[in-house]
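User: When convenient, might I ask for sequence and structure tokens for a protein?

AI:
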Amino acid sequence: MKTINNILLALLAVGLTACGNNNNNPYPNGQGYYGNQTGYYGATQGGCVPLTSGAFGFTATNAQMNSAIILAGTLPANSTSPGAHGTVAMGSAGATQGLIQYQPKQSQYGTLQIAIAPQGGVMTGVVQLQPQVLYSLTGYNYGYGAYPNQQSQLCVQSMSFDIVHTLQMSQAGYGGYTQGYGYINQALVYLTLNNGQTIGPIPFY
């Protein structure tokens, strides 16, 4: 069985050589590196987050959720549930009051944190990738004397998620309002870049 590094490197070898942006501007709509930050760090609402930033805030709408699975965004043909499952825009929704918080899921590749509104199919959160993963994706050296190469012009314009979760709901408070919390058992995350390439799956087990 191939390791994730082999899978990522194989995927990268096929499509990360061209930015696909004629003006070489990785920041759409004139946005700078930090753009219009809101909510989770690294988030640029409605924009394209530079791949080298490593922190990708997002908001999914019309995601498909049940008691076991959360599917969000357009999952590629090689995924377990290919096709469109709502949309994912870059940038977190900001305040997560009223949303169900999930315990952050950590793996050797990074951290996934989400909050959801199960009835509305809304999920917001952030994916934080480890420096070694960013290096395998961009060729950017994060040590002393580092400088970005052409891959630093790539940015993440959308994401997709295949999440196995456990949701704990409870009744509490005056009027019996519902609240709860959740756990990410495992997740596969895909990044869609501004050159049309999809990277992944990046696993969180």
